[in-house]
Design goal:
The complex is a heterodimer of chains A (107) and B (121).
Chain A: E1 4-7, E2 10-13, E3 19-25, E4 33-38, E5 45-49, E6 53-54, E7 62-67, E8 70-75, E9 85-90, E10 97-98, E11 102-106
Parallel strand pairs in A: 2-11
Antiparallel strand pairs in A: 1-3, 3-8, 4-5, 4-9, 5-6, 7-8, 9-10, 9-11
Chain B: E1 3-6, E2 10-12, E3 18-25, E4 33-39, E5 46-52, E6 58-60, E7 68-73, E8 78-83, E9 92-102, E10 105-111, E11 115-119
Parallel strand pairs in B: 2-11
Antiparallel strand pairs in B: 1-3, 3-8, 4-5, 4-9, 5-6, 7-8, 9-10, 9-11
Classes of the chains: A mainly beta (107), B mainly beta (121).
Amino acid sequence: DIQMTQSPSSLSASVGDSVTISCRASQSISNYLNWYQQKVGKAPKLLIYAASGLQGGVPSRFSGSGSGTDFTLTISSLQPEDFAIYYCQQSYSSPLTFGGGTKVEIK
Amino acid sequence: QVQLVQSGAEVKKPGASVKVSCKAFGYTFTNYAMQWVRQAPGQRLEWMGWINAGNGNTKYSEKFQGRLTITRDTSASTAYMELSSLRSEDTAVYYCARVDYYDSRGYLDFWGQGTLVTVSS
């Protein structure tokens, strides 16, 4: 199985800050990497597909980059509604696997 | 608009089975695959398996082989996830999610609201 490791596991930031979350795969996954946002008690929401594709309706302050084993999700100018847990997920091979999540909290 | 509506919360005893439904609205059900993902309390998301809603082909995580059955009813635009021989570790929120593709890269673009399954004696 491909292991997905996110860092940091949590971070504190202020509204307006720029935030970067990292995701590393245990082997190369090309750009078969997606990012999801999950708020408490809610289902995950797709933000980024294929490493850098912005899902429709998602604000442009969210961006993704990377290929191979190292990926990043960047939120420029953090907004109050962005405080949530973020997960990466690889779709390169079965079983599909998710990272452990990064909790973004208000400073 | 696309919506996935899941059945309600369940409480089951160890050894029992549970069947969760996921009804699709707003798109042609047979044109997409459906995946099932679960999340135990405080844990990461865990992929369970998926079904091609068009031809009914399935693929399961080896972790659930022999206990998991995913089916669909095309006339009802509904997918089902049945997990048997339940144990306490199966207590989790279970999600269905639609699969879409960009240049063969799969992603989960719409999710159900989740169904809490509690396994307790």
